[in-house]
Write a structure and sequence with these properties.
Helix content: 25-40%
Number of strands: 5
Number of helices: 3
Radius of gyration: 12 Å
Order of helices and strands: EEEEEHHH
Strand content: 15-25%
Largest sheet: 3 strands, antiparallel
Shape: globular
Length: 91
């Protein structure tokens, strides 16, 4: 089973249990729940605190070798907030 490390908390887990964030060829940073988008990727737990720590401490920027714009940060935090919501309550 392929294993990856969460860039937020450092936990090593099965690749399928983590969520990939990708820097696309165009330079955009976005969540990649399918894990199939082309580009440089980093992995995070499905825990909003991990996403917050990865952004605050610059770990996500370092892993993706990219500077995060304010729009990138907002969209990642919005995605992370909706991770733990029951189906039908995202928004």
């Amino acid at each position: 089973v392929p294993r990856r490390t969460c860039v937020g908390c450092g936990t090593v887990a099965a690749k399928r249990s983590l969520i990939r964030v990708v820097r696309t060829v165009q330079g955009q940073v976005q969540p990649d729940p399918t894990g199939k988008k082309p580009g440089r990727g980093a992995y995070l737990c499905a825990n909003p605190q991990c996403w917050d720590q990865a952004v605050k401490r610059g770990r996500l920027e370092r892993s993706l070798k990219a500077n995060l714009s304010a729009e990138d940060v907002d969209s990642l935090r919005s995605f992370a907030r909706n991770l733990n919501l029951p189906v039908g309550e995202a928004g």
